[in-house]
Amino acid sequence: MVNLLLGYQLNQFGLVPRTTSHFTAIFYWSFLHGSLDHLLTNSIPFTILGLLVAVRGSYYFFLTTLFISITSGIVVWLFGRTAIHIGASVLIYGYFGFLISRAWFDRQPLSLIIALIVVITYSGLIFGLFPSTQQISWEGHLAGLISGSLMAWLLCKQKPTKKQLQE
């Protein structure tokens, strides 16, 4: 909303690959949006998929969100095309990859049910993984999907503590 009030002037601080002055954007690039429409388009899937990630607790939600944003930011900074990359779609794709991969790795009934719902509802996201227009960061989408899948694998390898399960 601050970016909207400032006429989207904060977007100049988005992630620009291989530019050292924009490297710190990996910490916030997924929270900048190019327009109100861009923000609103991302809001519903971000909320729904984010809530499904949060089913396991706030610890998993915050850890997963941070991991996806930073890891995919590093990947885009290293390999993305020269452009300003912004938007929560990286998190949407990350949550999508996380939820499906989580079901694959842990094979628990809850994870499988959630993954089935996600695949049925959001399978159209697959088309965003391919270059279509200059305004869409397909690199961010792909990096988000990979980062979310990697996070699911990492979390399935560790056993949660009692404190994490209670949060």
TrEMBL record:
Its EC number is 3.4.21.105. InterPro entries: Peptidase_S54_rhomboid_dom, Rhomboid-like_sf, Rhomboid_protease_S54. GO terms for molecular function: peptidase activity. Residues 24-157 form the Peptidase S54 rhomboid domain. The chain crosses the membrane at residues 26-52, 59-80, 86-105, 112-130, 136-156. Its main location: membrane. It is an enzyme of class 3 (hydrolase). The keyword Membrane applies. It is a multi-pass membrane protein. SUPFAM superfamilies: Rhomboid-like (SSF144091). GO terms for biological process: proteolysis. It is found in: Membrane. Keywords: Hydrolase, Membrane, Protease, Transmembrane, Transmembrane helix. Pfam families: Rhomboid (PF01694). This is Rhomboid family intramembrane serine protease. It comes from Zooshikella harenae. The lineage of its organism: Bacteria, Pseudomonadati, Pseudomonadota, Gammaproteobacteria, Oceanospirillales.
